[in-house]
Design brief:
Elements lengths: L1 H31 L3 H19 L63 E5 L16 E6 L5 E7 L8 E2 L6 H9 L3 E4 L4 H9 L4 E3 L10 E2 L1 H6 L6 E3 L1 H11 L14 E2 L9 E2 L2 E5 L5 E7 L4 E6 L2 E2 L1 E2 L4 E2 L1 E2 L1 E11 L6 E4 L2 E9 L2 E9 L7 E4 L6 E2 L4 E7 L7 E2 L1
Amino acid sequence: MKRILCVIIVAACLLLAACTEASVSVGESLEAAPTSSSSAASSSSTAARTSSQAAVTSTATVSSTAAVSVPVTSTSAKPPKTTAPIKLPTVDNPSQTGYLSPLTGLPIRAELVGKRPVAVMVNNIKASMPQVGISNADIVYECLAEGGITRLMCLFLDYEDLGTIGSVRSARDYYLDLAQIHDAVFIHAGGSDLAYSQIKSRKIDALDGVRTTVSGVFWRDPDRLATMRREHTMVTNGEKIAYGIAKKKYRTENYEGFTPSYRFYSAPTAIDGKSASYIKIPNSSSYVAELSYNSELGLYLKNQFGKPHIDASTNTQLGFTNVIVLYTHQQKVDSYGRIAVDITGTGKGYYLYGGKAVSITWTRSDRDGGISLFNADGTPLYINCGKSYISIASESIYSKTVIK
C-alpha cells in the first residue's frame, strides 16, 4: 500500500512540474510577441509622431497663381539621429510639407535638413574634358571666367558619399557671390588675387587645393596626368570634402535665419510661355551652351563644343529639369582678360521648363545674401522640382540668345 501511495505522489509531482513549465513557456511567448491589436497601436503611435514631424510648414503667403494643391511629402525620410528639434528648410508654398531640398525641391532624408551644401569649382576648358561627378550636382552654374572660357560651379547637398569630382579649378570673386546664395562651403583649387582677398575679408568657408591648410582633401588623378596638363588633373570626392570640413571645423548647418532663394511648385506644373525646345547661349565664340528638350525624359540635355556634354563617371549626358538664364553686367578689368560680374541689383532672364520659356527678372541687394526671381508681372517665380542649370550670362548677349 505504501508503495502504491509513493507512486501516486511522484506522479502528482511530475504532473505539477509539467504544468508549471508549460505556464512559464506560454507567458514568455506572449511577452515576446505582442498581440496584433497591441502592434497596431504601436504602429499608429509611431505614424502619428512621424506625421507630426513631417507636417511642419512655412506660414508665408503664396500668390494664388503659384499655389499648387497637391502636397509633396517624403515617405522614405529616416528619423533624425538625435532628439534635437528638426529645422526644416523654408518653403513658401504652404502645401509643401516634409523634408525638402532647398536646391531641388525634392524630398530628402531628415538628416540633410538644414545642412550646408558644397559648391565645387569645376574646370570647363575643352582640354580638360571629360569632367567627372558633375551629373550628381543639384544645381550647375555656368559663367565666363576670362579669355572667353567658362567655368562651372556645382552645388551638392548630399555630398559625403560622392565619388570623384573634377577636375577642380580656381576661384573668381563672383563665384563666391553665387556660393553665398546657398550658404555653401566653397571648394576650389587656386584663384585670382581678388578671390583670395575676398575669401579672407568676407570670411568665406573654403577648401583650397593649391594654398591648402588641410592635406588629403585633393589629389592629382594619375590617368589625367598621363594625358593632360597638370592644371587639369586635380580632383576630390565627397568623403575627402567632409574630412576637410571637419578638420577646419566649419559650420555644417545653415546659419540662423537662412532662407533658400528658389521657390518650388509642389507638383509638376506647366508654364504658359513660348515654345522652347532649344536654347543657345553664346557666352563667347568658343563657349556656346546649347540645351535641347527631350520630352521622353522631361529634361533639357546639354551640349557644348558641338557634342553632348558628358559626365565620364556615368557616361551620361547632363540633363536638367529647369533651365534658368540670368543676364548680368560683365566687363573686363585687367590685362589678363579677367572680368567683373555684378550679381547684385536687378536684371532680366528666362525660365525654361517642359519645352516652354517665360521672361523673368531677378533682384539681389547683397553679395552675401539670397537672390529673388520674379515673373514678368512681378509675382514670385516658382520653378519645378528637379535639377537646374543656371547660366550667369552677360547682358550683352541677351539679344543673341536663341530660343525656339
